Amino acid sequence: MKQLVASLLAPGLDAASATPLNEQLAQLLRQTVLKGQIGPGTRLPSSRDLATRLSISRNTVLAAYDQLIAEGYLETRHGAGTFVAADLPDSYMEISPTPAPAPAALPRAPGLRRPLAGMPALDQFPTALWARLSGSVWRRAGPEHLQHNDPAGYLPLRAAISQYLGAARGVVSEPEQILIVSGLQPGLKLLAESIVPKDHAIVLEDPGYPGLRHAVEPLPHPLEFTGVDTDGAVVPPAGIRAPGLMVVSPSRQYPLGQTMPLRRRLEILDWARRTDALVLEDDYDSEFRYAGRPVSSLQGLDGGRHVIYGGSFSKSLYLALRLGYLVLPAHLAERVVRYRSATDSFPAIAPQMLLTRFIEEGHFARHLRHLRNIHRRRLALFQAAARAHLARYFSFDETDAGLHVVAHRHDTVPLADTMLAALAHRAGVGAVPLSASYCTITPQQGLLVGFANMADDEIDNRLKSLGHAIAQETGF
User: Fold this and answer.
1) Which residue, 419, 429, 432, is CA-closest to 15?
2) Residue 229 forms beta bridges with which residues?
3) What does the alpha-carbon distance between residue 179 and residue 328 come to, in Å, rounded to a whole number?
4) What is the β-pairing status of strands 404-409 and 74-77?
5) DSSP symbol at 319
6) H-helix or E-strand spanning residue 411
7) What CATH code is assigned to 2-113?
8) With a threshold of 0.90, does the pTM exceed it?
């Protein structure tokens, strides 16, 4: 079987191709499985053996195996090795000499198999307190909670969010203006469908968060982009015929990390007023500044007329909570809620009730203060370890905020950032390719490296392991 696998794969690997070898190998293995040439339950060669037979590095094979495990094509068995998934559906098998196009990658569950970049210190989450509050909430619940049907979300939570945002971020709002959502991407889709005419453009930052682009692409609205400079997003070009909604991240631009100064904020607001466009303020990473006070919101400067403020508890609490919010202009709130009521179910009540108690009793504010101290210390440890182990491969942007550090790949490193991200995952370091954030302009090569979700005593060893893996792959 080892010789069969190697003979099936060898002709398809092209070292001169722009596609990284690990991606080529994953594609070839995927096609081999789908065509039935390697059946379900078949044990694959070890990464070292396959690397030797194909004359490629072991890390390349490991990255390809990891990718296919994440997609469900392969599985590992403790102490036994890597196998073709035994429960691969028959409908996916293509036993035919006619080549078939590779199917779209199956949705991943990355948090289960590999570290994620940009996560908070999840080891610091107060799980015992959360569990105790959960029991207390349900002991006090009445019939009204079991038939809750407010499409805007749980009113006490909206009131708690309104109060918190007013004190912490200078956001101007009443509870009736707040809409509970499961995240900014579904929130953006809801806004586009409910209040942005289909012939009006949605404008995104470039580079920017890929998830927002993915949310907009299926919509009928024109998709436009505006550039980013040292002050963050620039005012959209005059050539956009009918701008409807611009999405910006002024607190900490994703991915590059700039904080938008007051002058640029006022320019964006002036553009919105002149064009009668809306601005969705993605308050990305606003809770995590480690020097000085957080900057005030764009929405507060505008007074809530043209700016919709969007936030999430995914980074301040945990990703799987799936709770966020939109602060809508007063004159648009009813229209958005009415559309939501007609097209979507109201958000689940249980996590909203629990989060309300967590905020009202002061636990949320205390948790944020604790996380800032933990993250500040881990950032310093990360920066020292990065200088010691990775300086020959990357230059790191200085930062005093957020949950990731931007690492720009040196031109002398002959690896694409997709491959570097795979090596980082193998070393236990959460990282995503910087190039994935670009759409219409030439992408930079580098990594967005998470530091907050690594324990203090693991940071140096993990970055050292990453440096060693890159050295093995590059030879220097």
Assistant:
1) 419
2) 232
3) 8
4) unpaired
5) G
6) none
7) 1.10.10.10
8) no
